[in-house]
Amino acid sequence: xxxxxxxxxxxxxxxxxxxxxxxxxxxxxxxxxxxxxxxxxxxxxxxxxxxxxxxxxxxxxxxxxxxxxxxxxxxxxxxxxxxxxxxxxxxxxxxx
Length: 96
Hints:
Blueprint: H1 8-18, H2 25-32, H3 41-54, H4 62-67, E1 81-82, E2 85-86, H5 88-94
Antiparallel strand pairs: 1-2
Helix pairs in contact: 1-3
């Protein structure tokens, strides 16, 4: 059984998306370590997975992920109906 470290969730995401043996462990460690204070591991892992799924494996890199970190934030779902009424946001999104 492999040793579990702070890097394990991110390593697993990378390997799940691009396959066994694809994770650049050294660069991933260096790129993600500074993110652990301001972000939760769950947030980083979610953003990393969105980045990897949207990026061709030939161009994906830990440094590229960190540079574009804000872009991979989870989107809050749009509230369509509140108290039985269409919200202003939903109304403007559905108008022609």
